[in-house]
Amino acid sequence: PTMWAWDFGDGSTDMVASPTHTYLKDGVYTVTLRSSNQYGGSDSEVKQAYIVVGSTPAFMADFTASPTSGTAPLTVKFTDKTVGGPTMWAWDFGDGVIPMQTCSGDGCNNIANPTHTYTRNGAYTVTLTASNQYGNSDTECKTNYINVLDVPPAVDSIPISAGWNFVSVPKKLVPGMDTAAIFGKIDVDGHSIFQYDSVRGQWVTLTQTSQIKPLDAVWLYSKKVDTVPLTFDTDPLQIPPTRELKRGWNAIGFTGFESLEAKFTLLSVQDKWINCLGFSRELQKYNEMIIKGRNDDTKMNPYNGYWLFMSDDGVIAAISA
After folding, report:
1. Pair 227, 158: CB distance under 8 Å
2. Domains of the chain: which residue ranges?
3. What is the dihedral of CA 302, 305, 310, 316, to 10 degrees?
């Protein structure tokens, strides 16, 4: 080499072959050398946590993962959060051990932050042992951290008519089956599936990964009569959902499995709602307007979406979890 570019990890650099550098503060420093010559050849070397100044810092293994639950096959991204400059990682995902691996530079990413796919149902304990070249080592074990779930059978369905449908889900869907992919078998005849976002004041076209939540309403076209299977979350500790509404028109969903008068369905925003308008998928037209104080004993129905006019911002609560 005829040219050198040093990065000492503390903000200082040098351009000579064999420099001397003084570190002024305690810490662990990564050193990088990039060398080249007059013929265009070049290379770089990165030594992670190579220089330690002062006392050795605390070394503590830790990690996170996302997602931590879902149905098989479940692909999980693990992220190393170890403190103290690790350079070696040994992962045990609970369904098989990955041997200790060492790396430096950009090559560390897939070892320090691996992706793993679980193919069988079960609760998996994940263990990370991290260490470095100074003899520091620590182990973090998270018991039953990853939960791969059975796919429960569909227990309900949204009735779909030929033409436009203004629909909603009556309660929270099971994770992994709570996106617009539930509409995948509907022949939409080239139409988009969309929602109205009142917070941003715009229409949103849904994708396969868009979440479908209680209190949301979805516009969906179908070429023929059909159904949308639903699988509900059975977690007994669910918190009833709420949703922010804005002054003006909002598109909302009905929660629950039994029809209920509008004055009770909308009790959480009773001082702010003015009008409510439903859509008949069978007749392909809007129903009679529900007006608070006049005909608010009109029943609202499961699986339906509604337009709700608000006199002010508010938060609507589901009538069931």
Report:
1. yes
2. 3-53, 63-149, 156-317
3. 50
Distance set, CA 303 to CA 153, 168, 195, 311 (Å): 19, 5, 15, 25
Q: What pLDDT digit, counting tens, does each position of 269-310 carry?
A: 999 999 999 999 999 999 999 999 999 999 999 999 999 999
Cα Rg, the chain, nearest whole Å: 29
> Which residues fall within 8 angstroms of residue 301, CB to CB, at 6 or more apart?
254, 259, 278
Task: Show Cβ contacts of residue 74 under 8 Å, excluding neighbours closer than 6 positions.
Answer: 67, 117, 118, 146, 148
Residue 153's pLDDT band (cuts 50, 70, 90): low
In CATH, what class is 3-53?
mainly beta
pLDDT in tens, 100-124: 555 544 455 568 899 888 888 888 9
3-state class of 86 per DSSP?
coil
Q: Retrieve residue 266's tokens.
A: 């909308």
- Report how far apart, in Å, the C-alpha atoms of 70 and of each of 75, 92, 141, 308, 318 are: 9, 19, 20, 34, 24
Residue 236's DSSP bridge partners are none
Given this chain, do its domains 3-53 and 63-149 carry the same CATH topology?
yes
Q: Which pLDDT belongs to residue 314?
A: 96
Dihedral (Cα; 256, 257, 260, 265), 10-degree rounding = 10
63-149 maps to CATH 2.60.40.10: yes
CB under 8 Å to 194, separation ≥6 — which residues? 203, 204, 205, 206, 218, 219
